[in-house]
Specification:
Blueprint lengths: L3 E10 L7 E10 L2 E7 L8 E4 L4 E4 L1 E3 L11 H8 L9 H10 L2 H17 L2 E7 L6 H12 L4 E7 L8 H16 L5 E6 L6 H13 L3 E6 L7 H7 L4 E4 L5 H10 L2 E4 L1 H7 L6 H6 L4 E3 L13 H11 L4 H15 L16 E4 L6 H4 L6 E6 L2 E2 L2
Parallel strand pairs: 1-4, 1-5, 6-7, 7-8, 8-9, 9-10, 10-11, 11-12, 12-13
Antiparallel strand pairs: 1-2, 2-3, 5-14, 14-15, 15-16
Helix pairs in contact: 3-4, 4-5, 5-6, 7-8, 11-12
Length: 382
């Protein structure tokens, strides 16, 4: 593979705690990995030279929470919500109905479009959940489709209870035949532990069964109100508790003590006019925070990690540095990845060149398309 040296970097944000920012920087990429980092004047030779001309470079975003396999949209629900109707989890069922009716080519096409949008806006690693099929066959095919686009696939059969069954019967299905069919296509298991979805004991059953099947754990927790989700995630050693909008002091203490990542999803609050999570409270307590899009057709139909960074700074008490850190290294931590989310020697060569001199512009200029180039494993994608 051709080696590439990037020179003239105005500000290199590495997300590496040892050396987080370097001005007038350069880096060398070879064989898909970062091989050297330092000042531009000291850059070694390489087969190809890319002069960034004073632009900023950051690691590729790591979107650790996205629902991309679905059909239909919920435009009418969104419009009604903007007119004053409160958000509940019930609208998921309309997406389930549309997804069940869709063909595999239709689902692949929709997923591919959303993945393309993610990448165009700087995401080089992303997770994809199932959860809009809620039958054995529909969940399995959703994960088969997700596997075409990412290795970070999550079985979310326990999204909501479909209307044709009871919670007890559905949990037996999820932890039995559905899990058996889906586990070969999934790396993670997730559960929506929330009022209107699954209670604590059912959620524990789902997570325990997933772990027994060899899947790693993550939890939708404390989005719509206080509840047991965060504490359950900490008790069971989940990689992340996602949403974390309504937290008690005990929840925050548990996250800090266990190292479970708090993945915050400000696109959901933006789209539902709900209170934003208090990122400042979490960070001050020593909790690791990640940012993700939560891309889904109901409560957060965005594929823009820069938009989520801007929301985190404006609405959640984060500094620009903390927000970009959460969208890169934090997301990698939520996926228990050490090869992505940072730019250091030996990391995967996933990087974003911004049409700006600093990552601060991601929050300073919200809505402006600042992603100029996207490279993954040393190859230019955008």
């Amino acid at each position: 593979m051709t080696s590439v040296v990037f020179t003239g970097i105005g500000l290199l944000y590495t997300a590496d705690p040892e050396r987080e920012e370097i001005e007038d920087a350069a880096l060398v990429v070879d064989d898909g990995l970062v091989r050297w980092i330092g000042r531009s004047a000291d850059a070694p030779p390489a087969d190809e030279r890319v002069d960034v001309e004073g632009r900023a470079v950051i690691p590729g975003f790591v979107d650790s929470h996205a629902h991309l396999v679905f059909a239909g949209d919920r435009t009418e629900e969104f419009a009604a919500r903007m007119a004053g109707r409160p958000y509940t989890a019930g609208g998921i069922r309309s997406t389930v109905a549309a997804t069940r009716r869709a063909t595999i080519p239709e689902l692949v096409s929709t997923t591919a479009l959303l993945v393309s949008e993610l990448v165009m806006q700087g995401a080089t690693t992303f997770e994809i959940k199932s959860g809009y099929g809620l039958t054995v066959e529909d969940e399995r095919r959703s994960l088969e489709i997700a596997c075409q686009f990412t290795e970070e696939t999550t079985f979310l059969g326990a999204h909501v209870v479909p209307p044709e069954t009871t919670a007890d019967d559905y949990v037996r299905l999820v932890t039995g035949p559905m899990l058996e069919a889906c586990a070969p296509y999934a790396k993670w298991v997730d559960v929506f532990c929330e009022r209107g979805a699954f209670g604590e004991e059912h959620s524990r059953e789902v997570l325990a069964a997933g772990r027994k099947a060899g899947l790693r754990l993550r939890v939708h927790a404390n989005q719509l109100g206080p509840g047991p989700g965060v504490r359950l995630a900490c008790e069971m050693g989940a990689a992340s508790a996602d949403h974390c909008t309504h937290l008690t002091d005990a929840d925050v203490d548990a996250l800090a003590a266990t190292g479970v990542v708090a993945t915050l999803l400000p696109g959901a609050e933006f789209s539902t006019r709900s209170p934003y999570p208090d990122a400042r409270r979490l960070l001050d307590a020593g909790v690791t925070v990640a940012l993700a899009t939560d891309c889904n057709p109901g409560s957060s139909f965005t594929t823009s990690m820069p938009f989520c960074v801007a929301l985190a700074v404006r609405e959640m008490g984060m500094t620009p540095l903390e927000a970009v850190r959460a969208a890169t290294r934090g997301g990698a931590r939520a996926l228990r990845r050490t090869d992505v989310g940072t730019l250091c020697v030996g990391s995967r060569a996933d990087l974003v060149i911004l049409e700006a001199p600093s990552y601060v512009h991601l929050a300073y200029r919200p809505g402006v398309p600042l992603v100029a180039e996207v490279w993954r494993t040393g190859r230019r994608l955008v």
